[in-house]
Specification:
The structure is a homotetramer. The first copy, chain A, is of the alpha/beta class. Chain A folds into two domains: about 220 residues, Aspartate Aminotransferase, domain 2, CATH 3.40.640; about 90 residues, Aspartate Aminotransferase, domain 1 (Alpha-Beta Complex). Chain A is built from 13 helices and eleven strands. In chain A, strands 1-7-6-5-4-2-3 form a seven-stranded mixed beta sheet, sandwiched between helices. Chain A has a four-stranded antiparallel beta sheet with strand order 8-9-11-10, with helices on one face. The longest helix of chain A is centred in the C-terminal third of the chain and has 20 residues. At the A-B interface, α1, α2, α3, α9 and α10 of A face α1, α2, α3, α9 and α10 of B.
Chain lengths: ~350, ~350, ~350, ~350
């Protein structure tokens, strides 16, 4: 098959518009050939357990799944009873961008909280952390946070520690939507476990797709006491891959060496370069502090419309004029510089 | 990454124990690089529409998804109302092997019918096709058949035509679980549409994984009047791939040329070779007529236990001693001959 | 308000076509007036606990609900995990007559078993009691039986003991759909607990509506270790009555004295009288042994059509010509005699 | 059975702490005796259709159900597709007080909007009325309002007209949670249809329990084009009463004459009397304008604690010290005066 697209064209729309890292494709090739037990009985999925224990501690269990929606819904199902509720930020992907899958497919009741920048705090959690023992209220059982957040911001390790301590005090467990957890680690310059396992996180949706995989996420059960039925629920959630060796091989390629960190660090650096190039331009207002690989700014809607025809990106909020620019493992300095120059040109009229 | 497994080891456990066909991996490589719109806005998914129209007719719509459970549940959700029921064979994968996903995740009520060999008929359908207008009964709305069946048997085009005519007369639509639809086409020596579109099938779960893909199935809506909400339901069913170009590219590689037919025909031929080699062995009783790429036989349990240590395969039914042998696109004549010889040896004691 | 119907007209269609027993209405009157805490905080619901402990043992907990579908689905939800399955007879009300509510509303996977007369046995249970640990199979967790059955037959106490022992050995719990449990007790001439609590039953849907209540059933958790989340699940199952005192008062009227037994015994006796009057009529074939308050016979379809215009009753199975005649607490000897005479007349032509 | 409670004790906790109006009990008595078809085939349910058409117009269809949670979830299920969402006030009963039943049992995604006093407006609706065609967002399909609201406030007929016009312009339908619709009619001094049918409302959960019934609500489909599958969904929602004649007879007693209006007008008047008696007391701050039968005030927590021991009522919001006082059809002037005097006494210390 011949390529149908231009492999040199890149934009700033999303890190899932990028393709797969060559090392990832090579790993799939290495795992190919011959027969291996399906549904996770293969040697690659066995090795994957060791890789994840290395990053998240000896108790960690890794359950490969297909996509982020699946990872989140499965995590939350395994952490809750059928009468439970999940406290999350109003801007959480699980509340906003999964088409209602958590409620409709997962039977989950979400209790969203407005936040200034996508980050919960113990005080914000308390706005919904009420009503235990009252059958008229779905019982709060999990706090779900996103790291890095949907608005490109970061929790420090200490902030996550405080959330975990507070949640645990109230009898709740903590889930991290880690679609971009690698970007967080790179930005915080910390090992993955330093702001998850070590500060009390219970279950993580660990993202691979946005960091250079073809497909695949992993539900990491850091605290096995906080999740039950994972094996069965992964099947009923329709997230059990038959040829799981290929999901696992990709994650081994990502996490056994430093590919995860190289790629995430690079995309963060490109976002930083973009931020530096545009923040002082007249007509650009930063919407949130860009702390990982995403930059949110307010610009004129006409400028945004013209610019996005040349470099694809997304308008985040029509009402406020906020747009989102995302950098990927394959974003180049030249991409950033050309884009910043184009923006400057458009702003000048 | 180095291979962790022996790429020369193969067995007869399932066609999902095989890996990916080299042409499929090449297609992924061709589709890689640069940025493409996510969630199906890419050029490969656009081309895929044409490929599927070529096979299934101009009205056909192709919705790539991750796996077979997802394809089946999504198809049936799109074909039903929340108060509907689905008539299927008692041995249907959707009833037996999906961990309850249809009921638990899809909210589907199944009405299973015992069959002699995995195949429904109009008369068998009538055993459950009752109760319309009675609110105490989930309303039969879909007949779901599997082609080739879970027992390795085949419907002729005429048999499917009769089922479709009967179902349509009763106001029901017809779904085909086509996990192995390519094997059926090869065995029947018919174009795909000849026993689907042309005889009245409404929606198909078209399998890729068991015919040499890394991952991926396609829900083919042959009759758009028989399904609604596909786009939204694919998302809530957690089957929407972000980097969809890679699912689509695999299917283009499979279906644009004749790879699908070569691979399926080969696996059928290997099953035929195996059947021929073993059917007359004393101690072997054929359980079903092997019409595609699967062979079901009754053998002594001790023989099965010893043999499966050397060549992995599955005991299908402990109670009756039936075992299942599945051939794949990469099964070789030497594999078959060695296996048949080993069986003969074990049977001789 | 004036009556709109003829209060002297009665038939044999169902015990839920009868009204309420006068003692039940009197109890509602007694419980009326003044304010009482809603949602079960009232004194009648407190007293109800004692009444049920008296019948089912000191560990029994009573949860009033609205109707039988609700009682069954709630019971089974509380007894299962989201990945569990429930083994039941193919003719079970939960499988046949609840419009798919168990699957669609309760997220339950049923594993139905064909039976000769509506009764399961350990051997029949074993046809579905397989697959623990296999994520592709919903995990059998509960056996649900109906006493008296949907076909008017009875389990002996010993038969239920054998089912409970077998289920418990396999790690499953036992639910009884006791819509007509009172009829069973009257027919067996045993206290309620003798064929439930004392032989190992875990949870019961205890019927009131068909034994002379306006409305109301009670989920009786005989073994609190076998159910969890009852309070919350009753709310999410939409079965939490705000003015619960009126459900509870009805059940107190039924169960504190012997009203339950008088009424059930009477309806059984009327079915017995009917059986005796018709069993030897030419053209009448008994379909099942009538052991409680229901009589199932095969008669000519034209006879059935003419007769049911004079005395309403239901054709149970169009295909086989089986009809069902149900007696109620208010069925009189004269009703039975007139009906039997009419049948004899119709049969004579 | 003897009364177990004091029929002269009343409080201000909820209108569902009251019992049934004597005329309602009389209607049940009139409907009792003899046999009537179950599940709504009876003459009372037939008459009920006429009664509701009289109040809500010739197209209105009335579906009796058991309780308010059931009425709301059933209404919203019938008005939506499986991928739809429902816009409601953050304080809506459906969002706050149904234990997650809408999400968990109904598969509904709610899009709550903060409001000043429990009332939505077109502008507030627009905060969530976005994203049609975007599969990542559950598709807004219904606006649900409560009349009178959970905070004791009222929409005018004009305000509801504006909401309906706006919703319909956007392709959405309008549901009214009318648990206290009678109170609204009495307060507005308008026929029921003047602020529902005549201004564009599509479906209503019409409350009976809080206005003097034993139990029972009615889903009124004012616009049959806005709901589908009602009959089947009522069954799967476990809200189909077998002895439906008794639900219908109660509603006939309520609505055929003016009992509904007398009772609602009386409870409103008692709330008005209470409001007048307390609003100028030092230490009492009105939380919302009391427009129907509920009064919300801020008082000192210790005062509230002491007072509620003498006259039961509910603390609505621990954080703000708001308490709720609800008047019923059986609240007397003496009750109100004694309560107001007790409050004044407590406030004086």
């Amino acid at each position: 098959m011949m390529p149908l697209h231009d492999p040199s064209a890149r934009g700033f729309k999303s890190d899932n518009c990028a393709g797969a890292h060559p090392e990832v494709l090579a790993a799939i090739g290495a795992a190919n050939g011959g027969h291996q037990p399906s549904y996770g009985g293969d040697v690659y999925t066995a090795r994957l357990q060791e890789v994840f224990k290395g990053h998240f501690g000896e108790r960690a269990e890794a359950y490969p799944v297909f996509n982020g929606t699946g990872a989140n819904v499965l995590s939350l199902q395994a952490m809750t009873e059928p009468w439970s509720a999940v406290i999350c930020a109003e801007t959480a992907h699980v509340a906003m961008d999964e088409g209602g899958a958590p409620e409709k497919t997962g039977g989950l009741k979400l209790l969203p909280v407005p936040t200034p920048d996508g980050r919960l705090t113990p005080a914000l959690i308390d706005r919904q952390a009420t009503g235990w023992g009252d059958e008229h209220r779905a019982q709060p059982r999990v706090v779900s946070i996103t790291q890095s957040t949907e608005l490109g911001t970061l929790y420090t390790a200490g902030e996550i520690a405080a959330i975990c301590a507070h949640a645990h005090d109230l009898g709740m467990a903590v889930h991290v939507d880690g679609t971009r957890l690698a970007n967080a680690a790179a930005a915080l310059d910390l090992p993955l476990r330093a702001f998850t396992t070590d500060v009390g996180v219970d279950v993580i949706s660990f993202g691979g797709t946005k960091n250079g995989l073809l497909y695949g996420e992993v539900v990491v059960v850091v605290n096995p006491e906080a999740a039950r039925g994972m094996t069965y629920l992964r099947k009923t959630a329709m997230q059990l891959s038959s040829k799981m060796r290929f999901v696992s091989a990709q994650f081994i390629a990502l996490l056994e060496g430093d590919l995860w960190l190289r790629s995430a660090g690079h995309s963060n650096a490109m976002a930083g370069r973009l931020h530096a190039a545009v923040r002082d331009l007249p007509g650009v207002v930063m919407a949130y502090e860009p702390q990982a690989n995403e930059v949110f700014v307010r610009i004129d809607a006409d400028v945004a419309a013209r610019l996005s025809k040349r470099f694809p990106f997304e308008t985040w909020d029509e009402a406020t004029g906020v747009v989102r620019w995302v950098c990927s493992f394959d974003t180049t300095e030249a991409d950033v510089d050309a884009f910043a120059a184009a923006l400057a040109g458009e702003l000048r009229g």
